[in-house]
TrEMBL record:
Residue ranges crossing the lipid bilayer per the database entry: none
Enzyme class: transferase
One Pfam family in the UniProt entry: PPDK_N
Record keywords: Pyruvate, Transferase
Start and end residues of each Pyruvate phosphate dikinase AMP/ATP-binding domain: 21-57, 70-287, 301-357
Keyword Lipoprotein: no
Molecular-function GO terms, alphabetical: pyruvate, phosphate dikinase activity
UniProt-listed Enzyme Commission number(s): 2.7.9.1
Transferase listed as a keyword: yes
Name assigned to this protein: Pyruvate, phosphate dikinase
Highest taxon above the source species: Bacteria
Length: 518
């Protein structure tokens, strides 16, 4: 008689060798737990559970029992209960396929908050604003991701509050305003779906897990898999992890770090840090991040500890590693690691340097580069010298090194299904991974680790230009500016891209960015 499959594993029960079952993220969390790194505890729902769900429309019969058992173990480890009204345990729910698919599937944070537990979180943390900000984020993410509500409806509601306050920064909204926004979000959900936002924390968790399963077959994920030759039948794992909070004040924050520069391959810590922010903020571009080196000034202890963990991971994986982390009131937590993506230039340099350091053999170094990467090194390069033209705005062009096609049309509502050769045109106040293969202008949120560009760059599509400040009309979000030069604030960015100077020339009502030279 065959042993029934196990559908849920605690992080401490897995390992990197189980990536096919736990997904790349789950295997990484398990491996870091085994290495003794500071990983918030949690559990992984396997890809096998996802396959059953996608094939039958129903979860495996044993899954609910295993999830309940794993949740009870997590509650014991944390000394708190999911959604408790006094001091609630909150969890994140994240996708994690066998092969990295950044930005392609769904994430829901702060699962466990409701109308009662938000007061308990405020009391336990001593910060009412933090509690309502977390609840607002949950209702917004859950409504968009799980319930299918148009995300722009939430954005319009919060934009109206910021306009009345005369600010563009969410941080300027106080606890009272965030509570009002949360109630407005719940009204939007009721109006759009006919149902109320669920108050039962366990129901929130179960529905979030199913939403992540469903996102495996979303448009973004399917297009990405087709381009990257990833089989459609692998399914995704789901990682449920105790929340740690980077938005508790100036002694907290969140960031992304690399063990080497993914653009050039140079040795040394590289990345972004965003003080007083939750995990999705640093990759969404909602606020300006600071270089990772700033953490050395803001929190020297966490910076040194992070450097130690990065060296541990690179030595263990023998490759460039990409790490997401959170600092909660001076305590460092590692939330994710994976072998990092890199440019062709960086791939050759990292392979060479690791060989010189005797970390890998010559044969392994050769196996880490291929002809396609060599071809990309031969593409023409952009001229990165400043143009002798008045600077009207600054921008981040997400263009792989050596690629020359940079279509950036600014009117917001472009054709989502353009004719052959036409450019899609979209403009968002924040970077969001909702389209595939379109041109995007993001008027706020500069940072070198914005996650949205990973989608087009992985598809070999030059797809994003961040510019700011850039006035957008509320009615049609039509970006308006005259002839100018748009130049990047920084030259290097995540996933191996450089910020290149772009010259904006006016064509009708919309400026178009074209290469300075090439």
């Amino acid at each position: 008689m065959s042993t029934p499959p196990t559908y849920v594993y605690a992080f401490a029960e897995g390992s990197r060798e189980m990536a096919g079952l736990l997904g790349g993220k789950g295997a990484g969390l398990a491996e870091m737990t085994r290495l003794g790194l500071p990983v918030p505890p949690g559990f992984t729902v396997t890809t096998e559970a996802c396959k059953v769900y996608l094939a039958t429309g129903e979860e495996p019969l044993a899954l609910g029992i295993e999830e309940a058992r794993a949740l009870a173990g997590l509650e014991r480890a944390m000394g708190r209960t999911l959604g408790a009204p006094d001091d609630p345990l909150l969890v994140s729910v994240r996708s994690g396929a066998r092969f990295s698919m950044p930005g392609m599937m769904e994430t829901i944070l702060d699962i466990g908050l409701n109308d009662e537990s938000v007061a308990g979180l405020a009391k336990a943390s001593g910060q009412e604003r933090f509690a309502w900000d977390s609840y607002r984020r949950l209702v917004q993410m859950f409504g968009r991701t799980v319930l299918g509500v148009d995300g722009d409806l939430f954005e319009q509601a919060i934009a109206a509050h910021k306009a009345r306050r005369g600010t563009r920064d969410d941080h300027d909204l106080d606890a009272r305003e965030l509570a009002l926004i949360t109630e407005e979000f719940k009204v939007i959900i009721r109006r759009e779906t006919g149902d109320d936002f669920p108050q039962d924390p366990v129901e929130q968790l179960q529905r979030a897990i199913r939403a992540v399963f469903d996102s495996w077959n979303g448009e973004r994920a399917r297009v990405y898999r087709h381009r990257e030759h990833i089989p459609d039948d692998l399914g995704t794992a789901v990682n449920v992890q105790a929340m740690v909070f980077g938005n508790l004040g100036p002694d907290s924050g969140t960031g992304v770090a690399f063990t080497r520069d993914p653009a050039t391959g140079a040795r040394g810590m590289y990345g972004d840090y965003l003080p007083d922010a939750q995990g999705e903020d640093v990759v969404s571009g909602v606020r300006d991040a600071v270089p990772l080196s700033e953490l050395k000034i803001l929190d020297p202890r966490s910076y040194v500890e992070l450097g130690d963990h990065l060296r541990t991971l690179e030595n263990h994986y023998r490759d460039l590693c990409d790490v997401e982390f959170t600092v909660e009131r001076g305590r460092l937590w590692i939330l994710q690691t994976r072998v990092g993506k890199r440019t062709a230039e960086a791939a050759f340099r990292i392979a060479h340097d690791l060989r010189e350091e005797k970390t890998i053999t010559a044969d392994e170094a050769l196996a880490r580069v291929d002809g396609a990467e060599l071809t990309r090194l031969m593409f023409p390069r952009f001229d990165t010298t400043p143009a002798d033209v008045p600077l009207a705005l600054e921008g981040l062009s997400v263009v792989p090194l050596g690629q020359l096609q940079v279509p950036v049309d600014l009117p917001a509502h472009g054709d989502r299904h353009p004719q052959q050769g036409a450019h899609r045109r979209m403009s968002w106040r924040e970077a969001r991974c909702e389209g595939v293969g379109g041109d995007v202008v993001d008027p706020q949120g500069f940072g070198v680790v914005n996650q949205l560009p990973q989608e087009p760059s992985a598809l070999r599509l030059p797809d994003l230009c961040q510019v700011g400040p850039l006035p957008l009309a509320e009615a049609d979000r039509d970006a308006r500016t005259g002839p100018c030069t748009a130049r990047s604030r920084r030259r290097e960015r995540r996933s191996g891209h450089r910020h290149v100077p772009l010259r904006c020339s006016r064509s009708g009502a919309a400026p178009r960015a074209v290469p300075v030279s090439g």
